[in-house]
Recover the amino acids of this structure.
């Protein structure tokens, strides 16, 4: 689950089964009742039709938790990281970072850092398209050490400088669900 619309869909599908969602967050759902096997199957069917799925396996849930923490941090929060991403994830998820990194890389075919960087660049694209703040402010907001550092990473990933991207005036952003 990577967006507010996904959370709304999940809440609705849970309620259709006569269950009461207590918590529906990115990648996490808590219901007040005990869900029986048939309800679980029906919920999974309904969610799959919407492009979502229930995760039962612990490793998949951990990987989704890593993704969701990064997405939340990059796209939905103005919170500035005061520690390294590795420490942040280890503290939030209560796992050793080496374990998280190995699990993530093995399953996703990219490192956690690469995933984080891809999302940062997508967020930069969004901010460039909105054209409400300067490149200097974007670099600061996204915690780059300088505009030059942001520009170098942006070009490495997109093939364009931020200025060139902005001039194109085409929305080349990917929906979060596709990343």
């Amino acid at each position: 689950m990577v967006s507010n619309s996904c959370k709304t869909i999940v809440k609705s599908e849970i309620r259709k089964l006569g269950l009461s969602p207590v918590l529906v967050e990115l990648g996490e759902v808590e219901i007040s009742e005990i869900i029986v096997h048939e309800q679980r199957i029906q919920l999974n069917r309904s969610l799959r039709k919407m492009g979502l799925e229930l995760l039962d396996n612990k490793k998949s849930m951990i990987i989704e938790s890593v993704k969701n923490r990064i997405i939340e941090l990059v796209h939905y929060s103005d919170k500035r990281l005061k520690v390294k991403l590795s420490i942040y994830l280890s503290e939030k998820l209560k796992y050793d970072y080496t374990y998280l990194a190995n699990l993530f890389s093995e399953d996703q075919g990219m490192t956690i850092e690469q995933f984080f960087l891809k999302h940062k660049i997508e967020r930069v694209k969004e901010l460039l398209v909105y054209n409400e703040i300067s490149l200097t402010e974007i670099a600061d907001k996204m915690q780059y050490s300088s505009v030059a550092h942001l520009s170098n990473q942006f070009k490495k990933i997109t093939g364009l400088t931020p200025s060139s991207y902005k001039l194109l005036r085409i929305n080349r952003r990917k929906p979060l669900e596709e990343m």
Q: What stands out?
A: The longest strand covers residues 21-25. Strands lie at 21-25, 28-31.
